[in-house]
Amino acid sequence: MMKLSAQRPTGNDYLFEIAIFLATSAQGCLNEPPLYGPFRLLDALSRLADFPEYATGLNSDTFLKEIKAIVDEKKFLVMYDVDGFKKAIDGIVEKFAKEAKKRYLTK
Amino acid sequence: MDIFEAIKGRRSVRQYKPDSVPDELIERILDAARWAPSAGNIQPWKFIVIKDKNRLELVRKVSPGYLGEAPLAILVCSDKEREHKIGGAMGRDYLSVADCSMAVENMVLTAYALGLGTCIVKSFSHIAVKEILEIPEGIEPELLVVTGYPAHKPAPPTRIPFREMFYLNKYGEKFRSSVE
Fold first, then answer.
1. Which residues of A are less than 8 Å from B65 in CB distance?
2. Is the minimum CB–CB distance between B62 and chain A shorter than 8 Å?
3. How many domains does chain B contain in total?
4. Is there a domain that residue A34 lies in?
5. Which residues constitute the domain of residue B28?
């Protein structure tokens, strides 16, 4: 996230950034290639993982950071390897399912 | 730099160094843009060089396709009124877009020859960009050329094989070539 001033962005600044990204992405998705929809959602996921760095009361989430790294590495597959892009999304969702089980079903 | 070297070497760059782009390089990119061909020599384009960090950041925020934190973007707009007046409906609806695209190609090749990276972005909110950059009615944003010093060199993307793209004399007739 670039800063508009010398001050560090607040949680509200970051929230606004994600919100405006989602709004403009929604507008774009009306006419853009269909695969840009999942691409934007992945990009939003990557941005969301940074939210704890700016917001108070949230802790950095190691799992989400790991997912962010995967997303940032794989998201551009949409430009030249659609099958690879789809497989990457499947892999990310699988990781989420395993993590959800670990977080909520182990007790 | 040889023109073919620039054509084959240019990539869409999405990671940039923070270093700003000197004005003399920006001017060379703009000069290359204005020498692009245009239908009927209408030259329907207007260019907005966005260097101010605050305004650039706002443009980035409303442009989901603007990836990476490049220190410069050049918005290429078409003057729809001028295009319509001279080129009619075809000019306004089709040729203006083609003309701006040809200007953009000159820009990105020139930038590459100057050691800069670029990414051509269409995924931006036209409504929001017009508001932020105070663009009047009749002037339509077409393409955003994100520009800066590349932080990495992307690998070349695949190309559809030559034989599937080029024909000789009529559609479907093989154009024989040594190029794959």
1. 28
2. yes
3. 1
4. yes
5. 3-164
Q: Is residue B28 part of a domain?
A: yes
Task: Please determine, for residue A106, whether its predicted confidence score (pLDDT) is greater than 90.
Answer: no
DSSP letter string, B152-166: S-PPPPP---GGGT-
B interface mutation test: which of A1, A2, A29 has the most B CBs within 10 A? A2
A2 lies in a domain? no
pLDDT at B56 over 90: yes
In a domain, A4, yes or no: no
Q: Specify the range with the lowest mean pLDDT, choosing from A32-41, B138-147, B157-166.
A: B157-166
User: What value of ipTM does the predicted structure carry?
Assistant: 0.77
Burial call A75-105: b when 16+ CB within 10 Å, e when fewer: bbbbeeeeeebeebbeebeeeeeeeeeeeee
- Is A27 part of the contact surface with chain B (CB cutoff 8 Å)? yes
Instruction: Indicate whether A65 pLDDT > 80.
Output: yes
Radius of gyration of chain A (CA): 15
Taking residues B96-105, what's their average pLDDT?
A: 97
Name the domain count of chain A: 1
